[in-house]
C-alpha cells in the first residue's frame, strides 16, 4: 500500500488502450472505497487526464494495490454523458 499526504495511491491500467501502462490515482478517503467506486474514480481520472476523451467507451479498468503488484479487481466502465443546457438572455425587441 502506498500512501501520500492527503490520501492513498492506487494504480490502474486500461489494457485495451495500452497493456503495459499503469496510471495512478490518489484517493482522498481514509477508508478504502469499494473497488467498483474506485474503478469509476479511475475512469474519471483517465478521461480527464490521460486521453480518455479520445476513446470509445466502455473500457476495461484493472486495479492494482501497488505499481508492480498483482491485479486486485477488473471492471468494465461506461461513460454517461449528461446534457447541459445554458440560457442566454435576449434583449427586448429581438
The string of secondary-structure elements, in order, is EEEHEE
Give the % helix: 10-25%
Strand content: 25-35%
What is the count of DSSP helices, taking H or I runs of 4+ residues? Answer: 1
Low-confidence stretches: none
Shape category: elongated
Mean pLDDT: 88
Gyration radius, rounded: 18 Å
Number of strands: 5
Structural class determined from secondary elements: alpha+beta
End-to-end Cα distance: 62 Å
Total domains: 1
Reported for the largest beta sheet, the result is:
5 strands, antiparallel
How would you concisely characterize the structure shown here?
With 94 residues, the chain is of the alpha+beta class.
What does this structure look like?
The chain has 94 residues and is of the alpha+beta class. It has one domain (2-77). The protein contains one helix and five strands. The protein has one helix at residues 35-49; strands at residues 2-4, 7-13, 23-27, 59-64, 71-77. Strands 1, 2, 3, 4 and 5 form a five-stranded antiparallel β-sheet that branches. The radius of gyration is 18 Å and the shape is elongated. The termini are far apart. The mean pLDDT is 88.
Amino acid at each position: 500500500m502506498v500512501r501520500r499526504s492527503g490520501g492513498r495511491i492506487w494504480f490502474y491500467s486500461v489494457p485495451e488502450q495500452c497493456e503495459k501502462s499503469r496510471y495512478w490515482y490518489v484517493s482522498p478517503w481514509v477508508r478504502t472505497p469499494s473497488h467498483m467506486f474506485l474503478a469509476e474514480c479511475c475512469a474519471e481520472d483517465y478521461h480527464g487526464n490521460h486521453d480518455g476523451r479520445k476513446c470509445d467507451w466502455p473500457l476495461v479498468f484493472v486495479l492494482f494495490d501497488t505499481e508492480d503488484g498483482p491485479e486486485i479487481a477488473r471492471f468494465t466502465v461506461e461513460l454517461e454523458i449528461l446534457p447541459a443546457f445554458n440560457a442566454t438572455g435576449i434583449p427586448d425587441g429581438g
